Amino acid sequence: MFKKILIANRGEIACRVIATARKLGIKTVAVYSDADAQARHVKLADEAFRLGPPAPRESYLRSEAILAIARQTGAEAIHPGYGFLSENEEFAEACAAAGVVFIGPPASAIAAMGSKSAAKTLMEGAAVPLVPGYHGDNQDAAFLQQEADRMGYPVLIKASAGGGGKGMKIVEHSADFAAQLASAQREARASFGDDKVLIEKYLTKPRHIEIQVFADTQGEAVYLFERDCSVQRRHQKVLEEAPAPGMTDALRAEMGNAAVNAAKAIGYVGAGTVEFIFDTLTGAFYFMEMNTRLQVEHPVTEMITGQDLVEWQLRVASGEPLPLRQHELRIHGHAFEARVYAEDPARDFLPQIGRLAHLSQPTASNHVRVDTGVESGDEISPFYDPMIAKLIVWDESRERALDRLNHALADYEVVGLPTNLAFLSQLASHPAFAACELDTGFIARHHAQLIPPTPAVDSDTLALAALAELAQVEAANLARRQHSSDAASPWWEADGWRLNQDNRHALHFRHGEQEYAVIAHYRDAGYLLEIGADKLEASGQLHGQRLQANLDGRRLQATVVRQAGKLTVVRAGSNTELEPFNPLLVGLQAAESGGGLSAPMPGTVVVVHVQAGEQVEKGTPLMILEAMKMEHTILAPHAGVVQAVFFQKGEQVKEGAALLEIAAE
Ligand code: ADP
């Protein structure tokens, strides 16, 4: 076994690999960009080396620099994690040439699966079933359109070099094909430097079921069963589980053997995943692609098999045989993984950046595991994946595991930037999810319930916010009184709320567009709070950010985080952001918001569809922005005439920048 390894990655996966290395007594070397100098993976490793500025190209993708660090530190092997250099055949080759073990498959296997098109051709030869489509070399737009027309709509355009849903477009009608092809090619070129695409028949009700495979250098290969990753947004996984609900032993063996055959066909070594798309309408399954690395969702497999897949990777890479044979592998219980992302579900899951002002995670146990690379106070930056953590739960049955998931989600607290936590809770508690009504359209189908319009703030939450405000004012008054030379001065009393027994004080909060008032009347043991028509006897103590309150005899707990002039009340996994304001100043602050359209996030303008003077309908595409390698189309919010276009193709825009102006009719 290795004595020292280098981890060429960051975030939760770097921390995850370090944990197993430590368990096996292997020393670890971390690498980091300037954005990650204080990151958790850097603190956990035995040694850490700077790679460069935050952009991946200048840091985590610098293969030569990484190899130089491996040589300098005497690391015998490099774990690439996922993303970055994990599926880069040149890097795997460079490692071999430098005498450093690449913890992954041989470069030839990465190459074989690197292009979705070439992989399909190879699998066709190995008699693995494929989705009907075109995956050849002819990239002529008219020819591709012809192929799409022939297979019938809807079709899916995919970047051959693709991954992460980039360069993937569904086309519903022949008339839209050309524009979608151009967009897919642009995204593919921006993300992968290669605009080759393939076309597939788009299945309307599929499940994503993938098989975990493992192969060793002795030519043995096994499958560690399946994961169901059907719950997706933007064609990307958000909730995964193992085993797949409804999977029969016969189908499992059939898919498992197909996956092992796929691995054997390319001389595979190490951990790999063969992704299949399963047609719920016909029961057929088709090969989609093989990922030649450890997957984000590998923990659910670990939970149901009781195996440590990173340990398997390290053993196999050091030349040991697979720890277990196929007949020794068993499924025990059920596991879920929920990916906690900094993203805004209400705005098409747009990635968000910002500081984790407050982070409190569920307690780890035999049933609950949190894989994360961040700590309270860390930044989610625009440079990397906006995943905050993976929450993994296990129990004897799916039903009990789902219960665990719901409880753990309710214990998860993140304040400082929008996250998908409330959305995950809605998903995990949705009756259709409990009933295993799974397919990749799940989120779209239940969108209205999963992303409900922001509800009015309830009286309890307003009372908790008011108690936190009042506690802070009282504490400030007390401190001032204690520091005053004239502590007995009645002015300090007068400055507070206690001038007389029925002193009343109005607190005002803004939540989105909505404004709320809480009238607090001072009482001996607390306050009487008037909130609309409600009257609540309220008292509470604030310890740091924890508020223990009593409302009309009910005991309530919440976390209240203050930052940037806002209060966030966190209760049972749901956040309510309230902005205290002074109504007397409102007139001065009123924001101007004419017909301007603003950028939902920082990015680059890639297409401008309209010009000043043009008449547009509601929903007309106006501009396409690219951010984090994804394209976002800005649509006209209403019919009208374009008054001005403030940015041109190629220009950078800041979040909130006005892009265009439309005068309503
Ligand atoms: P990427 O590598 O970019 O993530 P994949 O090829 O793995 O892309 O596909 C991602 C997801 O897109 C799949 O999990 C599935 O939900 C959906 N998808 C892919 N191919 C098809 C298809 N032919 N029909 C319907 N959905 C598909």
UniProtKB/TrEMBL annotation:
A Gene Ontology molecular function term of the record: ATP binding
Coiled-coil region: none
Cofactors demanded by this protein: biotin
Keywords for the protein's UniProt record, in alphabetical order: ATP-binding, Biotin, Ligase, Nucleotide-binding, Transit peptide
Source species, domain of life: Bacteria
SMART domains registered for this protein in UniProt: Biotin_carb_C (SM00878)
Residue span(s) of domain ATP-grasp: 120-318
Domain Lipoyl-binding: from-to ranges: 585-663
Span of domain Biotin carboxylation: 1-448
Annotated Gene3D superfamilies: 2.40.50.100, 3.30.700.40, 3.40.50.20, ATP-grasp fold, A domain (3.30.1490.20), ATP-grasp fold, B domain (3.30.470.20)
NCBIfam families the record matches: PRK08591.1
Protein name, UniProt field: 3-methylcrotonoyl-CoA carboxylase, alpha subunit
